[in-house]
Design goal:
The complex is a heterodimer. By secondary structure, chain A is mainly alpha-helical. Helices cover 71% and strands 0% of the residues of chain A. Chain B is mainly α. Chain B has 9 helices and no strands. Chain B has helices spanning 2-18, 21-40, 47-68, 71-75, 78-84, 90-118, 128-153, 159-182, 197-222.
């Protein structure tokens, strides 16, 4: 296994992430104009939308990495896919909560069914929430990796299709003030949004690399202990949803 | 293709002799109609509400069939036998999806008229071709996803849980399209005679995409 590659460049990446997110927050609070109709609360948009976008991209990324596993049979691809989906879930839950807060503040309800982006996001999250239970209920690690990869590919393809279906199913009741096509965003808002999106993308990549490095280091330590101390030297791992 | 036909014929013969799955699916659908009658406290329903009730009922009945789909293979060692045979593995996907499709058709032949008698206010009458068209497209989606999910779930420990838990979110877009497509057809008074085109398009696209994906990944679920 390439144990060192995940740690390489991690320091620079971490610094870049911290700087970008700081700049994004500064822009959000001091540069971007107040939204005329929603006021200050609209600023959660700069956190919520990037979280949601990165989360969906993370799911698709996980599906692409899973193709790597099915093609090569190399378990490290499965580990990469697992970490990508696992982080996508964390970002997704954060995105859902921030979206709910935004809905409460601007529309007066915690949950709004006629906001197609919100609903389709919930469905995707519900689907990917079954990824870990699926892994957990398969004991054989090789089969766990294979089935989890199949699931990741199917679910990754599901993301755009589901989005399309829900978009069509929903009649727009609320005016679409902030669509993702930045055409109707004023340039200052667009810039702030772009920097924020970049910041969260960097955060995702940094966290992905950290988790990969940590998981690799742990398995390497186990391998070394086994070579040096024999099988008694290592504690048996419990059954786990994470690839070991 | 010949392998698929052989496996399909085997499945249909087993089903026709044991009568395990399809009667249970039909009974579940009928009981669900009764539950909806009391739950909604309505004698007749129509329009989008009727479409929702019909879609949910057919989905629950389909879930039963999906859960049972590979049970015989697992219990009797059919998987190993199939892997030992020098045949294309995708044949199993095609055969199982076709079997599920036929089960669903049989289910609907009974359940849809029963729905029309028991709950539906407006008569099925002239909307029937549209309903049949939507249900056929929906059945393709249910069979493909159902077979895929069932093949994943059958090798897990909590297989009865994992199947529905993965299957339901995966099926959601198809169910949305089915329910929304059926809605105008079941409306009282001026019911539409043809289903809205965009829902047919969504269903067809969904079927096509997942059929291709299932075809691509199914091999990996059988390797051992």
């Amino acid at each position: 296994m390439h144990s060192t590659t995940y740690g390489r460049g991690l320091r620079g990446l971490s610094i870049a992430t911290a700087v970008t997110i700081t700049v994004a927050l500064v822009l959000v609070f001091f540069y971007a104009p107040l939204d005329a109709s929603q006021g200050f609360v609209q600023k959660i948009f700069y956190v919520h939308v990037p979280l949601a976008i990165i989360s969906l991209l993370g799911f698709i990324f996980g599906g692409l990495l899973a193709i790597g596993y099915l093609r090569t049979g190399d378990r490290s691809w499965d580990l990469r896919s697992y970490v990508a989906i696992h982080l996508g879930l964390i970002f997704g839950i954060a995105g859902l909560i921030s979206g709910s807060i935004w809905a409460k503040a601007s529309w007066g309800h915690w949950w709004v069914w006629n906001e197609p982006t919100l609903v389709s996001f919930l469905i995707v999250l519900l689907l990917f929430a079954t990824y870990q239970p699926l892994r957990f209920s398969i004991e054989d690690p090789e089969r766990q990796a294979r089935y989890a990869s199949v699931f990741a590919i199917v679910a990754g393809a599901f993301v755009p299709l589901n989005y399309l279906a829900v978009q069509l199913a929903t009649a727009y009741v609320h005016p679409r003030v902030l669509t993702l096509s930045s055409a109707n965003l004023p340039p200052s808002m667009g810039l702030t949004f772009a920097v924020s999106l970049l910041g969260f993308a960097l955060l995702y990549v940094t966290m992905w690399k950290y988790e990969m490095a940590a998981k690799n280091a742990r398995s390497q330590v186990r391998r070394l202990r086994r070579t040096l101390l024999g099988d008694e030297g290592i504690r048996p791992t419990g059954r786990s949803a994470a690839p070991s | 293709m010949r392998t698929a036909l052989v496996v399909l014929r085997k499945d249909l013969r087993v089903e026709s002799r044991t009568l395990e799955t399809v009667p249970a699916m039909i009974l579940l659908a009928l009981i669900t109609f009764v539950i909806f009658h009391f739950g909604l406290d309505r004698d007749t329903i129509g329009g989008q509400l009727a479409a929702g009730v019909l879609t949910a009922t057919l989905l629950f009945a389909a879930m039963l069939g999906i859960n049972r789909l590979f049970v015989a293979e697992r219990e009797q060692g059919g998987f190993d036998a199939f892997l030992l045979a020098p045949v294309d593995r995708t044949a199993l996907l095609i055969a199982k999806a076709a079997a599920l499709f036929i089960y669903l058709i049989v289910l609907e032949i009974v359940a849809v008229p029963a729905f029309g008698l028991l709950l539906l206010g407006p008569s099925l009458g002239h909307a029937l071709p549209g309903i049949v068209l939507i249900l056929i497209l929906a059945n393709v989606g249910l069979s493909v996803i159902g077979t895929l999910v069932s093949a994943i779930a059958v090798h897990t420990r909590a297989r009865d849980l994992i199947g529905p838990v993965i299957g339901l979110p995966l099926l959601l877009p198809a169910l949305i399209a089915t329910a929304r497509g059926l809605g105008p057809l079941l409306r009282a008074g001026h019911a539409a005679s043809a289903p809205p085109g965009r829902w047919l398009a969504i269903l067809a696209l969904y079927d096509l995409v997942f059929a291709l994906i299932a075809y691509g990944v199914f091999d990996f679920l059988l390797e051992d």
